[in-house]
Amino acid sequence: MAKYYTEPSRTFSEFLLIPNLTEREHTPDRVNLATPIAKYKRGETPKLSLHIPFSSAVMQAVSDHNMAVALARSGGVSFIFGSQSIEDQADMVRKVKSFKAGFVVSRSNLTPDHTLADVQALKRQTGHSTVAITDDGTPNGELLGIVTSRDYRESRDAPDKPIHSFMTPFASLVCGRSGMTLPEANDLIWERKLNCLPIVDDNQHLEHLVFRKDYDGHKEYPLQLLDANKSYIAGAGINSRDYAERVPALVEAGADILVIDASDGYSEWQRDTIAFVKANFDIPIGAGNVVDREGFLYLVEAGADFVKVGIGGGSICITREQKGIGRGQASALIEVAEARDAYFEETGVYVPICSDGGIVHDYHITLALAMGADFVMMGRYFARFDESPTRKLKVGNNFVKEFWGEGSNRARNWQRYDSGGKENLLFEEGVDSYVPYAGSLQENLDKTLGKIKSTMCNCGATSIEELQRKARITLVSATSLVEGGAHDVMIKDTGLSGE
Ligand SMILES: NC(=O)C1=CN([C@@H]2O[C@H](COP(=O)(O)OP(=O)(O)OC[C@H]3O[C@@H](n4cnc5c(N)ncnc54)[C@H](O)[C@@H]3O)[C@@H](O)[C@H]2O)C=CC1
Ligand SMILES: O=c1[nH]c(=O)c2[nH+]cn([C@@H]3O[C@H](COP(=O)(O)O)[C@@H](O)[C@H]3O)c2[nH]1
Ligand SMILES: [K+]
Question: Where does NAD(+) bind (predicted)?
């Protein structure tokens, strides 16, 4: 006979935190959100930790190299999507690892034979007023000069004036050499009163530009997540099929942490994948997803460094409808967190858990942490930002960004070209959608982190560990849910003309 659970499975919106005494020292500026993401023994320092408990989902529409840089700069980690060729994924990892803060690849480039009109058109398009002039008009061509708005007079100069007649030529430029550090570049910018320092190699090929206005950049990102060589930490998603080829390429590219990306991680495929990685490499590997104690312990015994929790709760997920597997995200997390704590108690080994999918409101993150998650993984949340890889479109009067599930045909299509996969899935487990465009990652993150810290202070906690120890969590009845929103008032429409 089947085993029946007596409790229904529940989700975040059914719970609330009850405040504890807030003492004087419980202020948001004192809250530390550092959190482990790889297993460690009691008393030891975790091998890898985040400065904020956020990771971005292993999805085409979310985690490419740009998102990875932006999130690592803010203290979290991206797991670069694996639904692409091994070479392309390794390339993205390489881009993150070789990214040098303050050193930007020139985004506005022309040749000396272009004209002033081309400069103006490019400026309108990119918003950058510094244009690198290279022999072939590429960002890494031979540097022949620079054009800034100080080199021409829009009102007087003819639009067809060729760039070589008014650019600041290479011979008159102050340039930095390849391999220079950011402080060295900044010193040069300061001493020579420059706005922009081109960095060139021995053959006069342009590598990067360093801008004066980015000078204080490092101060803006006090939480940035770096390795010992001061490169950003990069994660990558893998699968339980081509790992023997994919993992070596990702490790070689410099990945710092891996995760097996699948809907259901309670499988011998995942056990074998973990065994392969552990036998051949010294890199932390997470596995999942699971929704119960058994699944968690199976992956831990198999050697997983962290375990991801959640089946079917994601915003674009239709797994529960299609296959009838899954569990309310809160119930899954609560059971796995209990198993993790018991395992720690018994063995002295702490295995971090990640709550993956289904975060709708910022407070859901705080709840997930309070329920025992060490960090969360989010897709929809990050898909809305400038830094996500998808197109920004105008639909009606609103800007949106595209967002599709990894189980949708759209995401799976790469296999048709890369590994001879099936034309179409037998059935899709994800949808193709839009999410409202929300601006930059940093702006949104600041707001979200502000809310989390504020709630933690209500709960008398200045660390995630303290929150987990002290949190008091209550179920809310369907009726009291209504009480939690605005009710029994007429909400004013803003922007309407008066009657
Ligand atoms: N978290 C969630 O609720 C869900 C996530 N997704 C996402 O969709 C993507 C695809 O997920 P899945 O379909 O679970 O991928 P998957 O490819 O790991 O699993 C698909 C099927 O292949 C089987 N399989 C795995 N490795 C195998 C091997 N080496 N040999 C033979 N069979 C093997 C699995 O048991 C499963 O039946 C992932 O990005 C995942 O995160 C999809 C659905 C739900
Ligand atoms: O059923 C699914 N079909 C899909 O196509 C799909 N793609 C991603 N995922 C999972 O959803 C998580 C992101 O969820 P959110 O957007 O809610 O943050 C992700 O982190 C995944 O766990 C999928 N689940
Ligand atoms: K299974």
Answer: 261-263, 310-312
Chain-centroid distance of CA 96 in Å reads 12
How far apart, in whole angstroms, are the C-alpha atoms of residue 330 and residue 339? Answer: 14
ipTM: 0.95
Q: Are 92 and 415 in contact (CB under 8 A)?
A: no
Question: Domains in the chain, start-ordered, CATH in brackets?
Answer: 12-100+226-481 (3.20.20.70), 109-220 (3.10.580.10)
Its pTM stands at 0.85
Atom number, ligand 1, closest to the C-alpha of residue 270: 26
Q: To test ligand 2's pocket by mutation, which of 79, 289, 309, 317 has the most ligand atoms within 8 angstroms of CB?
A: 317
Distance (Å, rounded) from C-alpha 284 to C-alpha 258?
6
The closest of 123, 102, 127, 71 to 207, measured between CA atoms, is: 102
* 201, 96 Cβ separation under 8 angstroms: no
Query: Do the bridges between strand 54-56 and strand 49-50 make them parallel or antiparallel, or are there none, so unpaired?
Result: unpaired
What are 22-81's pLDDT values in tens digits?
999 999 999 999 999 999 999 999 989 999 999 999 999 999 999 999 999 999 999 999
Pocket of ligand 1 (CB under 6 A): 58, 239-241, 261-264, 267, 269, 289, 310-312, 314, 317, 319, 356-357, 406-407, 429
